[in-house]
Specification:
mainly beta, Jelly Rolls, globular, 3-keto-alpha-glucoside-1,2-lyase/3-keto-2-hydroxy-glucal hydratase domain-containing protein, hydrolase activity, AL/BT2_dom
């Protein structure tokens, strides 16, 4: 009985072989964990384009005004948001405006949280009611003429529902001075509707763009894919009073600047973030 107990106790003691195996396993586990941490550090990260305090990293260009003239304080930062307002305007006079980030991007994931709000400028064109947008692959505002109404760009159109109660999707594509390939061919419509639901005025909406250079472009609204197209290129109409040297129809748009729109409807932007998806080609 005594011998059996001793043998049992000896059997329960970890052997040298077991200890070594355990130590190797622990080391491998730590190595894998370290590699995972290293990998996550190299993954793309979200970068704030709007710092919540000011728009010093952005450039303003408003129709009928020179670049840098933030006419009537159209774009302002209040309550940690970029606000588009018209309370200091006289006549609207088609003074469509855009707030451009300072550098271009080509491959990226853009995230913007916005809400259509406030009182529409009643002498603006009727189509601008509850309407704003995010321009991307846009020409540099420095290349725009003083009386050019829209930048040559692709627009991620932002809409809120109207009082008629009819469906009015947001996250549509509009094409000032551009064309895109949709469902296998160049679509000549100025705007292509998305498959999103209708959102009410004063409702915060999460809008996302995944842009892969001059290849595939994806629109997402509140996490749902609502529209896809490809091959953004210069072409089409709508843009007026542009420099002909800039509008080279048929030229693929591989990159461009991002801009927030002003066209007669107040809108708030509380978050503007980007994840750069362009791989570093340096060796």
């Amino acid at each position: 009985m005594h011998i059996n107990i001793l043998q049992s106790k000896q059997a329960m003691k970890p052997t040298t072989s077991f200890k070594l195996t355990f130590q190797i396993g622990l080391a491998l586990s730590m190595l894998i964990s370290s590699c995972s941490t290293l990998k996550s550090k190299n993954d793309p990260e979200w970068i704030d384009l709007f710092n919540g305090k000011d728009i010093k990293d952005w450039n303003v260009k408003i129709n009928h005004h020179e670049i840098g003239d933030n006419y009537a304080n159209t774009f302002r930062v209040e309550d940690g948001m970029i606000k588009v307002r018209y309370d200091q305007y006289g006549a609207y006079n088609n003074q469509f405006g855009h707030l451009y980030y300072k550098q271009p991007f080509s491959h990226y994931h853009l995230l913007v949280e916005y809400r259509i709000t406030g009182e529409w400028k009643s002498d603006a064109p009727a189509y601008t009611i509850n309407n704003s947008g995010i321009m991307f692959h846009s020409q540099d505002p420095k290349t725009m003429l003083k009386d050019q109404d829209w930048p040559i760009s692709i627009e991620f159109q932002l809409l809120a529902g109207l009082e008629d109660g009819k469906p009015r999707p947001t996250g549509n594509m509009c094409s000032p001075g551009t064309d895109v390939i949709y469902e296998g061919k160049i679509d000549k419509r100025h705007c292509i509707d998305s498959k999103s639901k209708t959102y009410k005025k004063d409702e915060w909406v999460r809008a996302e763009l995944i842009v892969l250079g001059d290849s595939l472009i994806t629109h997402l609204i509140n996490g749902d894919t609502v529209l896809q197209y490809s091959k953004p290129q210069i072409g089409g109409g709508v843009v007026n009073n542009f420099d002909p040297a800039v509008k080279l129809d048929g030229k693929l748009l591989k990159e461009g600047v991002i801009a927030l729109q002003s066209e007669g409807q107040p809108v708030d932007f509380r978050k503007v973030q980007i994840m750069n998806l362009k791989k570093d080609t340096k060796k």
